[in-house]
Design brief:
It is a single chain. With about 140 residues, the protein is an all-alpha fold. It folds into 2 domains: about 5-95; about 100-143. The chain is about 80% helix and about 0% strand. Helix 3 (about 40-60) packs antiparallel against helix 4. About 15% of the residues are buried.
C-alpha cells in the first residue's frame, strides 16, 4: 500500500469519529425542539455509520491535495468528486433529501457553490501566508 493510501486511511480513522458525535448532538437538539421527533434503531444506526463514513472520507480526501506528482486540477477533481459522492450518498441514504432529479440538482448546485467558496478562501489564505513568509525570509536573509 502506498504512502498516500496509508495517509488517507489514517486521517479518515482519526477524524471519522467526529461524525457520529455531531449526528448525536443534532438528534438531541431535534428531539428537544420538535414535538413529534422520533427515530427507530435502524435510522440511528444508518445515520451513525453514514456520518462516520462521511467524516472518514472527508478527512482522508485531504491527501489528494498533497500528491506532489498531480497537477492542481487533478487533485481538485479527485477531492471534489470524493466529497460530492460521499455527501450525496449520506444525504440520500438517510433520506435527508429525496433522491429525485430536481432535488439532486439543487443539492449539487449548493454543494458546488459551498465547495468552491471554501476552496477559494483556503487558497487565498495559503497564498497570503506564503507571501508573508517569503517576505520575512527575504527580509531577514542577511541576519
Amino acid at each position: 500500500m502506498n504512502r498516500y493510501a496509508k495517509s488517507f486511511l489514517l486521517r479518515g480513522a482519526i477524524f471519522g469519529g467526529i461524525g457520529p458525535i455531531i449526528i448525536g448532538i443534532i438528534y438531541s437538539v431535534l428531539e428537544a425542539t420538535l414535538e413529534s421527533f422520533s427515530l427507530n434503531g435502524t435510522e440511528v444506526l444508518l445515520a451513525i455509520v453514514s456520518t462516520y463514513l462521511l467524516a472518514f472520507i472527508h478527512a482522508g480526501a485531504s491527501i489528494f491535495n498533497q500528491i506532489d506528482e498531480w497537477p492542481i486540477a487533478k487533485s481538485l477533481v479527485f477531492h471534489f468528486g470524493s466529497l460530492y459522492l460521499a455527501y450525496l450518498f449520506c444525504y440520500a441514504a438517510n433520506r435527508w433529501i429525496p433522491f429525485e432529479l430536481n432535488v439532486v440538482l439543487i443539492f449539487t448546485a449548493i454543494f458546488v457553490v459551498c465547495y468552491f467558496l471554501v476552496w477559494f478562501t483556503v487558497f487565498a489564505v495559503i497564498k497570503l501566508t506564503e507571501k508573508r513568509l517569503n517576505k520575512k525570509i527575504n527580509g531577514n536573509k542577511y541576519i
